[in-house]
Design goal:
Beta-Lactamase, 2 domains, two-stranded antiparallel ribbon, 9 helices, WH_DNA-bd_sf, transcription regulation
């Protein structure tokens, strides 16, 4: 395969990144694997580090930078949204309630897709809205299977307890009524990625007077089915 594009600096940077795909490397190891001059490798590696395309590990060796994870997440989110929209539409029609998809966003969660109830009282969450991880059924789902550090950080400020998260894991869904906002109820279930981690939460939400104080009793089955369907689609397309 011809690795020469005709733009020398790009080809050299690509050679360095290609070498780092194999794992951490010192400057000397990068020089040996790329066959580039040491000053060139050093200059380009520092430039790539400035843009977070290259980083350093605890020993000071060069590694691929965090920007690649951010770019991969953006690609996966686009695929996730595309896969989710028809699932959320069916869920909305099945339950009669607005449906949403939430993804972790730092110590918050963000709505990345939604299908609103067309008429009547509804809980409309615009796409792009960031919400708390301390209240609501989606927050419970995203924390219930989170890594310990994030879970404990969330529980320190949450309106729910570790025992409630145990219940979420046991039941496979979460519910809330008046927890995030007075008069609003919701049900959520986890979406699993190919890596075996929860990457998102499918939810429905609406007025508590319609969903009642135990919305899971009526709607948990539909929400869990939707989350399972989305999980299967994502795992077929290998989204982490």
């Amino acid at each position: 395969m011809d690795n020469h594009s005709g733009v020398g600096v790009i080809d050299k940077a690509a050679a360095i990144l290609g070498a780092l795909e194999q794992g951490p490397a010192t400057l000397a190891e990068l020089v040996a694997s790329t066959h580039l001059a040491r000053p060139t490798v050093h200059r380009l590696a520092l430039a790539l580090e400035h843009h977070h395309l290259v980083g350093r590990d605890s020993t000071g060796a060069f590694v691929l930078g965090r920007r690649f994870a951010q770019l991969a997440a953006s690609v996966n989110e686009d695929r996730l949204v595309s896969a989710a929209q028809p699932v959320l539409t069916v869920l909305r029609d099945r339950t009669g309630e607005s449906s949403q998809l939430y993804r972790p966003h730092g110590d918050e969660r963000i709505c990345i897709a939604a299908a609103d109830r067309p008429v009547g009282l509804r809980d409309s969450i615009p796409v792009g809205t960031t919400m708390t991880m301390t209240a609501g059924s989606a927050a419970k789902v995203l924390l219930a299977w989170a890594e310990p550090e994030r879970m404990h950080r969330g529980l320190a400020r949450a309106r729910f307890t570790a025992a409630e998260l145990d219940k979420v894991r046991a039941n496979g869904f979460a519910e809330s009524a008046g927890e995030r906002e007075p008069g609003v109820a919701s049900v959520s279930a986890p979406v699993w990625g190919a890596a075996g981690t929860v990457i998102a939460a499918v939810s429905i939400s609406g007025p508590a007077e319609r969903l009642t104080s135990s919305p899971g009793a009526v709607h948990a089955g539909a929400v869990v089915d939707a989350a399972r369907q989305l999980t299967e689609v994502l795992q077929r397309t290998v989204i982490a």
